[in-house]
Structure formats: C-alpha cells, structure tokens
Amino acid sequence: MSADSTVEDLAERVRAGELRLYELEEHADADTAAAARRRVVAAETGADLEAVGEHAFDAAEAESNVENLLGAAQIPFGVAGPAPVAGGAADGEYYLPLATTEGALVASVNRGLSTIAAAGGATARVTDSGMTRAPVFRVAGVADAERVTEWVADNRDRLAAAAESTTSHGELLEVDPYVVGDNVYLRFVYDTKDAMGMNMATIATREAAELIEAETPAELVALSGNLCTDKKPAAINAVEGRGRTVTADVLIDGDLLEEQLGARPAAMAEGNVRKNLVGSAKAGSLGFNAQAANVVAAAFLATGQDEAQVVEGANAITTMDVRDGDLYASLSLASLEVGTVGGGTGLPTQRAALEILELGGGGDPPGANADALAEVIAVGALAGELSLVGAFCSRHLASAHRVRSETRTHFMNPINSQYPYRRSTTCGT
Predict the structure, then answer these.
(1) What's the whole-model pTM score?
(2) Is the model's pLDDT at 419 over the cut of 60?
(3) How far apart, in whole angstroms, are the C-alpha atoms of residue 115 and residue 76?
(4) Alpha-carbon span 102 to 109, nearest angstrom
C-alpha cells in the first residue's frame, strides 16, 4: 500500500468511527499518523493544512511535546544584538533569538541593545535559583498541622533522600510550610541545574509526599496546591522567586542616551516612576515594567521554553535613576523559568536558537547554561525597557508602529547596521 493510500485508509477509519484521532500512532508511524489526522481535520473543517504539515522535525521527535499532532505552527524568528553581557554565567556578546508575530518588537530590542552596547555593555546576575512544587495536605486541625510541620523540620534529610532518589540532577534546597486551618502546604524548592525542572520537581515531590503521609497525620489532597505557584500571577513568586531570579543593569552617559534614544536621563527616570511604578501600583499589577513579557515570550518561543510561564516571567521591576547626569537602569525578573535541556529545547529550531546563543545542553558546571540564558534574556528585556521608555519620553511611541509600515531604510544606523531603527521604532504599551 502506498503512503498516500495508507493515510487515506487511516483517515477513513477515523471518519467511520473505527479509530479515534489519538489512536493513529498505534497503527502507523508518527509522520503518517499526523498526515492522516490532517486529512480528517481538513475534510471536516475545510481548512487548508498544507502549511501546517511542513516542518523541520520528524513527527516522532515531538511525541513528548504534543498530542494529536497535526504539524507545526510557524512563527517568524528574528535576532537582536549582539547583546554585550557581563554576567555571573554569561560573558561576551550574544545574539538573542526572538520568535514573534509582533512587528517592531525585534527592532525595539535592537534599539535598546544599541544603546547598551554604546554604553559599554550591561551587567547581569542570577541572584537566586529554585524550582518549586507545593503539595497541599489535609489534617484534622491545627494541632495536627503543627505535628506535620515539626516532623518536616526534623526530617529534612529523609525528605531530601526520598525526593532526590527520583533524579540524578535535582537537589532539594528547602521545604517551607504554610498552614491555613486544616490545610498544610509544603513549598518544596529544588536546584534543577540546566533543566527548567518543573516535571523533575513534581516527580521528586510525589516521592517525598508519600513519606510524609506514611509518617504523619497528613493526607495528600493535591500534588500542586497552587502555592508553587505555576503559570499564574502570584505575589509569592514576586517575593520568594521561582526558577531564576535575575537582574540586569546598565549605566548610560546622559549625552549618549539623548543621542541614542532622544530623551534625557531625568525624563526617563520620571517617566519610569510615573508609568511603570506608580501606574502599575494603582492598577494592582504584579509587574512594574513596560514590556518585559514581550521579550520573555519571544525568547521563550524561540528557545523552547514553557510559554505559559511567561506569566511569571512578566513578574519584573524596572528602575531608573539619574546619577551625576547619567542614567542608571535595571530590570529585575523575580521568577524567570528557563532551561537549556528538556522540554522543547531539543526540537530542531529551538535547538538552533540555543546554538546561536552557544548555550545548548548542559553547562559546566551544571546549571551554568541555564543561568547564562536567564542573564542574556534579562539584558534583552532591559533593552526593551530602555527602548520603550525612551520612546514615550521622547513622544515617539505613537509614531513608531505607523513609521514601521513605511520605509525602514530611513532609520538604519549609518555607523553600524547591526543596530537598525535607532530613533523611533519600538513596540509595546
């Protein structure tokens, strides 16, 4: 039977009710199953799925990343930089890959990186690291809750042994208890090295939870009690951190700043306070920044991170101060959850993005590559903050998107064409 007839046969069996879409891989290789699935969906919806079926990976490569595979969603992939980074793990110039459909985003980051480069580069540091999982246990009352938390404090080594028995890389750092009535939440914190580590933390915590149930009055209700907190805005991540806590900063000469961004340091410092700090506080925001999520999301999609964790990645504070006529600017991301191994990092285009950064795979020492990735993303996000704050302080924000649709050559940097759209191209809100 030809490949096409096999595809049609499988599609017909689905339409006849003999097979379900998720069962196709049991009857054919992954690529054939995906082709049959496309044929069924196209026939039933009228959609043209030809472009969806064209991608650079074998379908089998994606089996751990997605179910009911149809194909791939292709996102334009640009690069900004080089970003000059003096970090604790990153050291040198890095091209930052960004996958996005938002016109002007890459240009905005490039514009900020141009300013950072002209100022001599940015500094970045990962100041804390730890992936969390927080199960919730049921107890009879507060007296039992006290017994559980005391047992946890007294048996830290036993919990670590149980948790770490499930992984050759993860290390239990701490277990923080929270009691609410007859609920006991235990927030486990792990060093997951170069993996983002959420699955690693989940599996390890399951093992530790079984020990707790066996030794205490606690009964496990849910392996995640939402105090972790994963993929939701949460003050605990803003305060305690999750994944990598990373800060990038730069000091920019006042005249250079005006030449590059068209705004004076005092104007940018005031604009940052009034928009990013006071405005965000009035709105009750957990993110006190201009557009950090823009850069985090684009970098996540390009490098194979868990895109839903952009929620935590937007949990960032931008500061700007005038120092002797110059501008000091920083961006602190409390919970940037990144990895260079596992998840989507092994897919071909995502692997290529990490290769552009020279940060693919495990680092030496373990954790160094993920730390470096966090630092580079932080510098890229800082560049986006500088570009956007500069734009609205110089009143170029409204014109930037309009100008982008006109000729771009107008804004090419005549000195270094690696940094186009110098004066007024930006994005964000």
Answers:
(1) 0.91
(2) no
(3) 25
(4) 12
The values of phi and psi at residue 11, to 5°, are -60, -40
Residue 321 a catalytic site member = no
Tokens for 29? 């290789």
Q: Is the pLDDT score of 125 beyond 80?
A: yes
27 is catalytic: no
Angle at CA of residue 350, ends 348 and 356, nearest 5°: 105
Residue 406 confidence class, pLDDT cut points 50, 70, 90:
very low
Find the catalytic residue in 240, 306, 337, 371: 306
Per the annotation, the verdict on 194 as an active-site residue is no
Supply the CATH classification number for the domain 135-222.
Answer: 3.30.70.420
CATH no., domain 77-128+243-411: 3.90.770.10
Q: How far apart are CA 236 and CA 415, in angstroms?
A: 46
**Continuous H helices in 96-222:** 105-118, 142-154, 156-164, 198-215
Where are the CATH 3.90.770.10 domain residues in the chain? 77-128+243-411
Q: Which amino acid is at 77?
A: F
Q: Which of 102, 146, 171, 191 is catalytic?
A: 102
Residue 429, pLDDT score? 47
Non-local CB neighbours of 51 within 8 Å, separated by 6+ positions: 71, 74
- β 326-336/316-323 pair status: antiparallel
Mean pLDDT to the nearest integer, 188-207: 97
pLDDT bucket at 414, cuts 50 / 70 / 90: very low
How far from chain centre, in Å, is Cα 47?
Answer: 31
Which regions of the chain carry the CATH code 3.30.70.420? 135-222
Helices 198-215 and 142-154 pack at an angle, to 10 degrees, of 110
pLDDT tens digits, 146-158: 999 999 999 999 9
- How far, rounded to the nearest angstrom, does the alpha carbon of residue 21 sit from its chain's CA centroid? 31
Q: What is the pLDDT of residue 394?
A: 83
Contact 326, 264 (CB under 8 A): no
Q: Where are the alpha helices (DSSP H) in 165-246?
A: 198-215, 235-240
